[in-house]
């Protein structure tokens, strides 16, 4: 009624799995499994299979973006959180250096990051605006030094972030 059209059912069609879309389903599940196995730098194995490796400080949107890329587009996305140890001398971890063409950085406004972290660890150094400013300045300097494309995620939805990453890296998106 809302679109002022009568429904036009198509017979002999289902919305479940068929031989035709089973491979698409399998690719999507494999991408989700990959994103979960490579979340937060848990595993650096098989990084050569990643189509994108998201980088950033804690709580800047790496995990939701990785999962969205996997679920919506079947993109194998890993993510790696920069820590204080990684920031020494603005060097990429050795395990990531071979994949410079797959790296994409995320950043966020310090005030927004502090607010997000405050919900997780109230009144902590981790959530302090000073700590957030320092970490973000260092990670952005690292991105510039290593010529890693990056995006400030503060005013973007996960859908917009994902689209910008896909466009920036020229990734193939599968539509499910």
Automatic annotation (TrEMBL):
The keyword Transferase applies. It comes from the Bacteria. GO terms for molecular function: ATP binding; DNA binding; protein serine/threonine kinase activity. InterPro entries: Kinase-pyrophosphorylase (IPR005177), TF_DNA-bd_sf (IPR008917). Pfam families: Kinase-PPPase. Keywords: Kinase, Nucleotide-binding, Pyruvate, Serine/threonine-protein kinase, Transferase. One of its GO terms (biological process) is regulation of DNA-templated transcription. This is Phosphoenolpyruvate synthase regulatory protein.
